[in-house]
Design brief:
This protein is mainly alpha-helical. Helices cover 58% and strands 0% of the residues.
């Protein structure tokens, strides 16, 4: 007898992204190799003490990396991609129901940091990428 899949959207689902992402996934491995605590120290002087909470600087730099890595031309395309890719959500430490930042927020945040700081942090991420690529070759 021929089976037919019936789709019924669930209102509530229990999903652990860590169980859905393969162990050899690039972004999963990069998440393990990437050290980010120093980013908070490097960027704290560019934020005020009052007002609305900003985009987490670690998330911002991870998003910038994803945009470059995936060859995306706009922040809108970046956010749209992150919304549908489980490995990217996992890498960003977002759950399925977490709201990603608005593309305009990325543009505004990008202007907070001097180019030298931005480049330095991105170079650190690139070093973790090289380590990740080496471990994936084995």
């Amino acid at each position: 007898m021929q089976g037919r899949k019936q789709y019924e959207e669930k209102l509530f689902t229990q999903v652990q992204l860590s169980r859905r992402i393969p162990k050899d996934n690039f972004y999963r491995q990069l998440k393990r190799n990437l050290k980010t605590k120093h980013i908070y120290k490097l960027t704290e002087q560019y934020y005020g003490n009052k007002g609305k909470k900003s985009l987490d600087p670690v998330v911002f730099f991870k998003l910038c990396f994803i945009k470059k890595q995936e060859g995306l031309s706009s922040d809108l395309k970046l956010i749209n991609l992150c919304q549908i890719r489980l490995d990217l959500l996992f890498f960003l430490d977002y759950n399925l129901d977490d709201k990603l930042p608005h593309p305009n927020t990325l543009s505004k945040t990008r202007h907070l940091f001097p180019n030298t700081l931005f480049d330095s942090i991105m170079e650190g991420i690139q070093e973790a990428v090289e380590k990740t690529n080496e471990s994936l070759k084995d």
